[in-house]
Amino acid sequence: MSDLTDLYQAVILDHNKRPRNRGKLPVANRVASGDNPTCGDNCTVYLRLDGDRIAEICFEGAGCAISQASASLMTTQIKGRTVAEAEALFNAFKEIVTTGKAPDEISDLAAFAGVHAFPARIKCATLGWHAALDALRQPPSS
Ligand code: ZN
Predict the structure, then answer these.
(1) Domain span at residue 82?
(2) What is the pTM of this model?
C-alpha cells in the first residue's frame, strides 16, 4: 500500500512541478474562474468547446500544490471529452476525494484519494474542476 501511496504522491508532485496545459488560451470560447479563500487558491479555466466536445483547455492559477496539481490533472482528463463525460469524471473525482475510495480501475484521479482525510483540502482539490464545469455551463463568450 505504501508503494501505491508513493506513486500517488508522485503524480501530485509531478503535476505541481510541471503543470500541463498551463496558460491562457487565446481561442477560448468559455472562461470561468474560482477561488478558495480559506487556502488562498485561485484558478481560471479557458476552454474551447467544439460542439459538445472540449477541444482545448488551459488553466491559470496560484495556490497550494493540491489545487494546482488537481487543476493540471483535470485538464489532461477532460481534454477531448464531451461535456457529459467531463461531468461524469468530476462526479467520480468528487467521490474519490470525499470518501477516499478509488474505483477498481486505477487512474491518476485516484492520486487525490488521500485528500479525504483533510476535509479543508477538498475545496483545493475540486477548485479547478468547479471552474471548468462553470465554464462549460456558460453561454459562448465569443
Ligand atoms: Zn489549497
Answers:
(1) 2-136
(2) 0.93
